[in-house]
Amino acid sequence: MPAATADPHEATRARIKSTLHVPNPLPPLEIEQYGQFEPAPGVVAERVSYATDYGLRVPAIVYRPRQAPAGKMPAIVVVNGHGGDKYSWYAFYAGILYAQAGAAVLTYDPIGEGERNLQRKDGTRQHDRNVDPPDMARRMSGLMLTDLMQATSYLAQRSDVDPKRLAAVGYSMGSFVLGIGCAIETRLNSCVLAGGGNLDGPGGYWDSSNKPMCQAIPYKSLMFLGDRGAVLYDLHAARGSTLVINGTADDVVSMPETGAAFFDNLRRRTILLHGGDKNVFDVMWEPGGGHRPYFLTRPAALWLGERLHFAHPMDQLSETHISEWAAKNNVFVDKLYATELREGGTKAMGTGIPAVPHDEMNALPREKWEQDKEKYIYETWLKEAKR
Q1: Contact in structure between 39 and 45 (CB atoms under 8 Å)
Q2: Is pLDDT larger for residue 263 or for residue 336?
Q3: Rounded to whole angstroms, how far apart are CA atoms 351 and 156?
Q4: 43: phi then psi, degrees, rounded to nearest 5
Q5: SS (H, E, C) 20-70
Q6: How confident is the model at residue 8 (pLDDT cuts 50, 70, 90)?
Q7: φ/ψ (deg, to 5) at 332
Q8: Confidence check: pLDDT of 4 > 60
Q9: Among 286, 157, 294, 170, which residue's Cα sits nearest to residue 236?
C-alpha cells in the first residue's frame, strides 16, 4: 500500500508558526465554565475560559441557540479589531445574529482588553506598547494566533458543534490575525476578512503599519515566504474558503489607494501558485463604505450561509442601520469609528438585536477573576515572554 503523500504546505505552515512562536503542540484547553444567561429571546450565552500560551487563559462568551438544531451546528470565532473585545457592539451583535441562525459563536478578549486587562478596561490597546527586542512583537503575534487556534480547539471539541463547519470572522486588526491565522489553522472551513486582507509587499501598508507589535514586525518577519500575500492565500485555499470584504472608501486600511486592481493581481498570483482557482479567496466591495465589520452585512452573511449551512437561512432578514440602533439602545461605539463612513454606517443583518449590558458579558465571577487575574493579564504575558 503506497504511503500517504505529505501535505506540501505543512513545512511552510510549520515555519510560520515557528517564526511567530506558536506552540506545537497547542496547550491543553483546561476549560472552565461559569454559568450562562439569555441575552436575547432564543439565545443562550455561556461564560467560559480556556488556556492559551505563556500559562495564560482566555475569557470568552459563547452564544448558541437555546433550541439546538437537528444534528450538530456550525460555529464561528469572532476576532476583534484594535481596542475591541467581547464587549464590543459588533462582537455581541454577531454572537446573537448568528446564534439565531443556528450557529455557536465564540467571542473573546484579546490580550490587554476587558478581563485580560489589570483594570478590566476596554479599548486600552495595551498590546500596542512597543517592547524591545523585535522578537517580543513576534511573540505578541504568536499569542494572538494561539488565542485563535485555542478558540478553534474549544469549538471543535464541543459535542453540539460540527467540527467540519467551523469559521472565523475578523475585522481590522482581526483581519490581519486571520490573514496569517487562516493560513496555518487548517480546521477552519471558512474565513471572512473585513476591513483589511490587502496582504501587500515590501514597504506596503502592513510593513509600514504604525502598530509594529501586532502588525508591522510580525508581517516583515514573514519575508522568507517571498510573495507573502500570494503564499498566505495559497495556504488559505489549501485549507478552505476565504472572503475578503471591504468598503471602497475605507481610509483606515488604504482601500482607496489599494483598489480592486490590487486584489485582481493578488488573486492571479495566488491562482498561479495554487495551480487553479479552487478556494482562492473571493473579493466583495461595499461602494462608498468605510472601515466596518462587514461580516455582519448581507453579502458576507449569505456567503457564510452557503458554506456553514445554517439551520435558519438568513436571506429573508431585514437590516439594521447601526448608528440609529446604537443611539436608540444607548450602545457604546468608539468615537473614532461611530461616524457614518465607518462603523455607524454599517447595515447589519437582523432587526431587534438587543443591547447586552456590559457586565453581563463578564466571563468570570468577579471573585474568581480577582483570585486568578495573573493568568489573564498583559503584565503576565510581558513577564513570561521576556523570560
Answers
A1: yes
A2: 263
A3: 30
A4: -125, 130
A5: CCCCCCCCCCCCEEEEEEEEECCEEEEEEEEECCCCCEEEEEEEEECCCCC
A6: confident
A7: -75, 130
A8: no
A9: 170
- Quick one: pLDDT at residue 68? 86
Bridge-partner residues for 369, per DSSP?
none
Lowest average pLDDT, out of 67-71, 149-153, 255-259, 377-381, goes to: 67-71
- Residue 255's Cβ-side half-sphere holds a number of Cα atoms within 13 Å equal to 26
Residue 236 has which C-alpha cell? 488559505
**Nearest residue to 379 via CA among 173, 387, 27, 358:** 387
DSSP string across 151-197: HHHHHHH-TTEEEEEEEEEEETHHHHHHHHHHHH-TT-SEEEEES--
Contact between residue 161 and residue 155 where contact means Cβ atoms under 8 Å apart:
yes
Neighbours of 77 (CB within 10 A): 29
pLDDT recorded at residue 5: 61
> Cα–chain-centroid distance for residue 218?
17
Quick one: average pLDDT of 222-238? 98
> Nearest 5°: phi and psi at 245?
-130, 125
pLDDT tens digits along 303-314: 999 999 999 999
Average of per-residue pLDDT across 305-326: 97
Backbone torsions φ then ψ of 127, nearest 5 degrees: -70, -15
